[in-house]
TrEMBL record:
The keyword Methyltransferase does not apply. SUPFAM superfamilies: SAICAR synthase-like. PANTHER family: PHOSPHORIBOSYLAMINOIMIDAZOLE-SUCCINOCARBOXAMIDE SYNTHASE. CDD domains: SAICAR_synt_Sc (cd01414). It comes from Streptomyces calidiresistens. It is an enzyme of class 6 (ligase). Residues 19-278 form the SAICAR synthetase/ADE2 N-terminal domain. This is Phosphoribosylaminoimidazole-succinocarboxamide synthase. One of its GO terms (cellular component) is cytoplasm. It holds the Pfam family SAICAR_synt. It catalyses: 5-amino-1-(5-phospho-D-ribosyl)imidazole-4-carboxylate + L-aspartate + ATP = (2S)-2-[5-amino-1-(5-phospho-beta-D-ribosyl)imidazole-4-carboxamido]succinate + ADP + phosphate + 2 H(+). One of its GO terms (molecular function) is phosphoribosylaminoimidazolesuccinocarboxamide synthase activity. Pathway: Purine metabolism; IMP biosynthesis via de novo pathway; 5-amino-1-(5-phospho-D-ribosyl)imidazole-4-carboxamide from 5-amino-1-(5-phospho-D-ribosyl)imidazole-4-carboxylate: step 1/2. InterPro entries: SAICAR_synt/ADE2_N, SAICAR_synth, SAICAR_synthetase_CS.
Amino acid sequence: MPGFVETPQPARVPGLEHLHTGKVRDLYRNEAGELVMVASDRISAYDWVLPTEIPDKGRILTRLTQWWFDQLADLVPNHLISTEVPDGAPADWEGRVMVCRPLEMLPIECVARGYLTGSGLVEYRRDRTVCGLALPPGLEDGSELPAPIFTPATKAEVGDHDENVTHEEVARRVGVETAAELRQLTLAVYGRGRDIARDRGIILADTKFEFGREATAPGSGEGEAAAGPLVLADEVLTPDSSRFWLKSEWAPGRPQQPFDKQYLRDWLASPASGWDRDGDAPPPPLPEEVVAGTRDRYTEAYRLLTGLAWD
């Protein structure tokens, strides 16, 4: 089953309890009960965490997430407390750390799509729908949708696929009221991000969010999440969690100019990689030019969005 090509060993830090190693982040708990998220330079594609890292990627994701939290603060609270590196942590944690409030996370990937591509395009070509939502005829790869849509998915473990689900399935899992909140907030946050990105020359084609609630009260019924407002968590509107396209070169009916990890996916799926993504063998190490090209796209996305050069 896909997963890590090489399983990383988490750092041992006094006062921190290691909780989980994910595709990109390592999660710890400090003595105050706060979560310490450390973004690595690992990168994943096609359900594999690749054997080659992308330099600076963890810092880019962390800094860009913090920037977006500021842009979204009036729409939704977030879980960030500080970016202070814990005492005794490795030196390379600098710039990668987010100390966060613990939340009861909802088991849903909240995906918003404003353009048709990826798995949504596959379903549209087959059924004229995305996550069961009917779309008009005549759309192509890269077409802008009549309005953004909420297309949730189940959150998978490392090596498993996220699976698209209907709004009705979300309601069954987390309750009707919470499902409605997730849809409204996902589309509101996507809309804010889309408008900011567009003004800076980037098309936000689609993205995914994760939400939780303060784990302070029991749910109001079977399948309902804990009481309290929804809180935005994890990474937000980064090249890992979003599809960014260059606005000046956007044209439906063909692949777009990506400023995200689609560039790396395209290389892995090409004959140049020599890799069969449908086979059992893990993906190969990335050549230097693909590593450099991926890093360049991440740093350029950061520059275009924030207006700040990557240092």
